Structures are given as structure tokens and as C-alpha cells.
Amino acid sequence: MLVLDRDVAAMKDAIGMSANYFRNRIRESFVAAATMSDATAQVDGAATPARIVTVQPFAHERRLERMASLQAKTYTFVLAEAVPGMIAEIRIDTPEDKALHAPAMSEQITFAGVDP
Predict the structure, then answer these.
(1) What is the distance, to the nearest Å, from the Cα of residue 54 to the centroid of all Cα atoms in its chain?
(2) DSSP H or E stretch at residue 53
(3) Which residue from 25, 86, 94, 100 puts its CA 20 to 30 A from 12's CA?
(4) What is the C-alpha to C-alpha distance for residues 66 and 62, in angstroms, rounded to an integer?
(5) 29: CB partners within 8 A, 6+ apart
(6) Could you tell me if residue 48 is left (phi over 0), alpha (psi between -120 and 50 degrees) or otherwise beta?
(7) pLDDT in tens, 61-107
(8) Whole-prediction pTM
């Protein structure tokens, strides 16, 4: 949740729209527009069954039509039962937006283990 909250706060600061607007679009996308597929994830050096959940919460937002990179922003969650809390990876990808002179950005957090 901290990853998503930080991302929402960054969008709010950059665009000036309500954080609740972004949070609600993300929540709604899990219900209405998530895609899921089976995969394999590496956990502690071993392959384990996983599920990939991908959402593009702003893809059809008319309020963001001038921000193609935000409309194409993709959140990917790799879930694996072998991982405590099930979240093996979270990735946020924002493509380049030449019209706004914004570079492509990607952030990824991967489960590394339970040892400190």
C-alpha cells in the first residue's frame, strides 16, 4: 500500500488533482479492468507458481486526455503463495510522453526474502 500511496501523492503533486481521485481510479480498475494471467516467479532462488494482475486505471479517463503517459500507466502485481503476504513484485511503468517532454519511468519492488 505504501508504494501506491507514494505514487498517488506524486501524481497529486505533479498534476494538482485530488489524491482520492487517483486512489479511486486504481481501486475501480481492480474490479472492472484487471487482467490476470498465470506465471512463474523466482522466490528464494526457486521457481514457484504465480499470478500476474495488471491494471491501467487511467486508460479511459477523459480528464487525462492530454497526458497520454498517465493514461498508459501500468501497474503490475505478481502474486505468489510462497511469499509471505503473497506480493512477490509490484511494478509501475509509465511510458515516455514526448508531447509533455516526460521521460519513461519504471519502478519495481521485488520480494527478496524474510531475513534481514
Answers:
(1) 7
(2) strand 46-55
(3) 86
(4) 9
(5) 55, 56, 57, 75
(6) beta
(7) 988 888 888 899 999 999 999 999 999 999 999 999 887 778 899 99
(8) 0.90
Quick one: DSSP state of residue 86? Answer: S
Picking from 43, 55, 46, 47, the residue whose alpha carbon sits closest to that of residue 87 is 43
| Grid cell listed for 106 | 519504471
Say if residues 79 and 39 touch (Cβ distance below 8 Å).
Answer: no
Per the structure block, which three cell numbers stand in for 82? 510462497
N-to-C CA span, the chain: 21
The residue ranges of every structural domain in the chain are 34-110
Residue of 99, 93, 9 lying closest to 56 (CA atoms)? 93
**pLDDT tens, position by position, 25-66:** 999 999 999 999 999 998 888 899 999 999 999 999 988 888
Joined grid coordinates for residue 19: 489524491
As a dihedral over the C-alpha atoms of residue 73, residue 78, residue 79, residue 81, rounded to 10 degrees, the angle is: -170
What is the length of the chain?
Answer: 116
